[in-house]
UniProtKB/TrEMBL annotation:
The keyword Kinase does not apply. It is a multi-pass membrane protein. It comes from Phytohabitans maris. PROSITE patterns: ABC_TM1 (PS50928). This is Sugar ABC transporter permease. The chain crosses the membrane at residues 62-85, 127-149, 161-181, 216-239, 274-296, 323-342. Residues 42-52 have a biased composition (Basic and acidic residues). Residues 124-343 form the ABC transmembrane type-1 domain. InterPro entries: ABC_transporter_permease (IPR051393), MetI-like (IPR000515), MetI-like_sf (IPR035906). It is found in: Cell membrane. Belongs to the binding-protein-dependent transport system permease family. Residues 1-26, 35-54 are annotated as: Disordered. Keywords: Cell membrane, Membrane, Transmembrane, Transmembrane helix, Transport. The lineage of its organism: Bacteria, Bacillati, Actinomycetota, Actinomycetes, Micromonosporales.
Amino acid sequence: MSGPFRIPGAGQPGGEGPHGLELIGTTPAHRPRHAQAGVEGDWLHRPPEPVRRSPRVRRVPGWLAGLGLMSPSLVLIGVFVYGFIGWNVRVSFTSWQGLTPVYDFVGLDNYRALWNDARWRTDARNILIFTTVFVLGALALGFVMALLLEKGAKGEAFYRGVFLFPMAISFIATAIVWRWLLDNGSGGDTAGLNQLFADLGLGFLRSDWHKSDSSWAIAAVALPAGWALSGYVMALFLAGMRAIPDTFRESARIDGASEWQVLWYVMRPALRPVTFSAVLILIHISLKTFDLIYALDQGNLKIDTPSLYMWFTTFDGGFYDRGATIATVLLIGVALIIGPYIRHWLRSERR
């Protein structure tokens, strides 16, 4: 069909169609507005007008939102941790003695005086002995407990709770209990472990413990400390053992390896990261140990440590310069121990 289709009578307003019907759609009242205004073209196919949108709201970058959430904690840590550390270091270079602050500068005089102090040298030796016995004892006991639980002992949940229970007790409560266990009384005054040894016919094991005149008396203090932290070490080792695939151990057994060889050549290398972390954590705790020794026997110089020396020289003697110097030396010691671990961890993360 060529040309537009026309219905007879469609050109006249109110006209009739071929069957005498009125053509409603052709009257001016029923025409589209643009047709009434004389607009040419197919109005049904005109492109729609663009919708006006409200201006976009810029999204806050993720790092900026995270920084905003962390900023209160960062401010508090910056003021009450690093700010006080800086203030303590500053005091260590002054001659502040007494309640009146003195902020003069004396250089390294306090550090030289501390190095020449006989009590400081004794305390440094004590902390080395305490740390060695404490770390080795906690590692050995924690590893044995983890090995027993890893074998799938019955009632594992119960034993795991028992082993972890000492960690839930504060060092003050632990010291009060072990002060009785390490009692060095004799005769009718015998109590604690000495009484147990006597009842078992092991009287030759009797000891004066931390009240001994021996220079190794501080080693006795490592007993309650190791007892308290061995459960934590057990949890670390147990998690490390459970992370070793069973196929490794089964392959070694198929090749004829004994249980001891499986432990030494398969499990030991896999547990090196756990052991390294446990050693660093225990050393860090040993350097800061204060409340355990203070509650056990605070007046015994045989078990004196730098943390106790810092407390007494600062708050009992009023030598704030000496106390700040001891605290700074302890901080440097902790940094030397923790620093390599953090560096090793960052390198492993980058790999």
